[in-house]
Amino acid sequence: MDAALTAEQIEIRRTVREALLKHCATDDVRAAAQTRAGYDEALWRQLADRPGLAGLAVEGRYGGAGCGPTELALVCEETGQALLPSPLLATAAVTAPLVAALGSEEQRAVFLPRLASGELTGALVVPCGTLPEAFGLTGREDGGWSGGGRAGGVQARRDGDGWRLYGEAAQVLDGHSAGLLLVAAHTGGYARGRTLLFAVRPEGASGVARRRLTVLDETRPQARVQLRDVPAEPLGDAGRDVRAAMARLGGVPAAVLAAEAVGVAGRALEQTVQYARVREQFGRPIGSFQAVKHRLADLYVAVQAARSAAYYAAWAAGNGPSAAIGGLALAQALEAARLVTGEAVQLHGGVGVTWDHDVQLYFKRAASDELLFGPVQRLREHAAQAAGLFAAAMRRETVVL
Q1: Taking all residues of the chain, what is their mean pLDDT, rounded to a whole number?
Q2: Are the C-beta atoms of 328 and 380 separated by less than 8 Å?
Q3: What positions does the domain Acyl-CoA dehydrogenase/oxidase C-terminal occupy (predicted)?
Q4: Do 72 and 56 form a contact (C-beta atoms < 8 A)?
Q5: Same structural domain for residues 282 and 343?
Q6: pTM here?
Q7: Dihedral of CA 341/347/352/357: which sign?
Q8: pLDDT tier for residue 131 given thresholds of 50, 70 and 90
Q9: pLDDT beyond 60 at 151
């Protein structure tokens, strides 16, 4: 792995940073989060057009830039620093890779150009689990995150030559506004059940009800999606269980989420350092006290370690299956974001605990992300199991006994 960024990667990051500095101040973020869509649609179209964020990792033949997970991770680190409310994560890091990897050639030709242009946004509907479970990052590989053949989740049934979906899911990222839903559904009954992905275009479809939820982090919109006898088309081969395929793709969203969390932690630390330089106590800046210096130094180390892990995970995701590496990087980044934002609130003092202060936005993003994409210990446990660490320890223990 070459740790140095290329000239193209540096230019992509610079372009995104400049655009966000102009159009994504804190007041803009708060206003965008309160809109019906949950993000600034005009800014999304601008970013999708130039520098082409929506299609950054989509192949050139489908209208994308043809870049890889590393470039997408660099961009999401910048959007994490700005807390940009946008469909970027759900569309570019989740929906587009799934369509590219699992969709038929006809589906790729229909969906990918519109996803790459930003005209169409997407969301993954995981009824009975979380994104890490669906992508094989936390060990739940039995397909239970789609319903498991039991009551609940989303069930799929044949209807002549087509399919119909019935069920509901909560905590769907950008589910209230996405123009394309990829729904994980269970079919085949309990004994011979399997998990399939179905493409649903909710606009104009009867039986689809979507409601935006009230959540801790308003910059990360979530929705409840209800499906009542909704027509759908399988993504790719209708006879193929998608669990193993999704687990192979897990490194990409994990690396991107890790990079975004690093951006959150990095910006929270930057704000705290700036505050420590100007806030005076006992006639001197609080940043001059040794105890504060030590705390800030520890936070800096945590951010840098998480950044290195996220970059390595992004590189690994572009060079083959890397779910275990991505899971470890995500755990490191989520933990760093929680630690840094929590310390940021403490070091800001009384003003830090007010909801109106900027540092609270970063604290809420870090807390929400750990709930959505963690917990950290399960990410690490699954990576350890995948690497055979527990099996090796048990063998050594058996030999000793």
Answers
A1: 90
A2: yes
A3: 255-386
A4: yes
A5: yes
A6: 0.93
A7: negative
A8: very high
A9: no
